[in-house]
# Entry
Amino acid sequence: MKILLQSMKTPLITFLVLLGIGLFIDIGVNAYIQLILIYILINMILAMSLNLVNGYTGQFSLGHAGFMATGAYTSAYLSTLIPVPAGGLQIFSFLLFAVCGGTMAALAGLVVGLPSLRLKGDYLAIVTLGFGEIIRVVLLNTSAVGGARGMYGISGPTDWTLGEWTVSKFVTGYSHAIFWVLVCFFTLWRLIRSSHGRAFLSVREDEVAAESMGVNTTQTKVRAFVLSSFFAGVAGSIFAHYANYLNPSSFSFMRSVDAVIMVVLGGMGSLTGSIVAAMFITIVPEALRPLQEILGVDIRMVIYSLSLVLLMILRPKGLFGTTEITDIIQWLKRKMSPGASR
# Structure
């Protein structure tokens, strides 16, 4: 157990452990469960990135779906210009597309953030909501990316051989998604514990006091917004290449609401909470799907909504509050130490 806890501090070891889990899932789990798993990883990136703005910086953004759409369509359009090679080299193409999609989303975040992040509270929420809808309508009327029909036949992971082994498209897509989940987590985790992260937290706690101490609050909020937008664009890129189809309706206002629910449910100020909430939000509606066949009525959203209400009543600060996995690791270490009371 101690070796497992120690390995979680090293991104490379963590990636290899999770990759091993993915290989096991590829063998023993059907394609439907594998698809749900990829969507869970996408939602993890989306929730952690939004938590940087809504949780750690104390702003309220409702346009995250717009940045996700920017990254998704940028990545999908590039895949029509740059052929995806066969074999193991395809993973590098998807990494390139993800970086390009994230960069375009970050530029969009900069354009939106510079004028709007001087606003606070509800006003900022309205501006970001408007931006998300502008992006959706623009995509809806742009024939170059399919317009209302959407984009079909987007390049995605394919099976390829490595010597005597056959690497499935799930393993390729899973490893790509896991890579970005870890990059997002460790980047944000290290950032929050740096001087820039303390500036984010100071803006969240008291913006006036932060300004009086010399913190450029507008610049600080723009930095958080741009980085958050970058990872939202990466999440959109992964979604585009695994779904192989994009439609503007996939990035509606409700997609942004789902991201906000993940942040609030997990805990505003906890990356670990965002990860767990992303799992909950993705799994519960699918786990309740058999009830529709049994009862003849689709009451999934009723049960799903009721569970959210109960969780917020019992845990008003979210599932984890501001607790991170490192705090849990330290607690487990104290419990497992020889001198710990039993």
Observations:
- The chain has a mean pLDDT of 85.
- The first helix runs from residue 2 to 7.
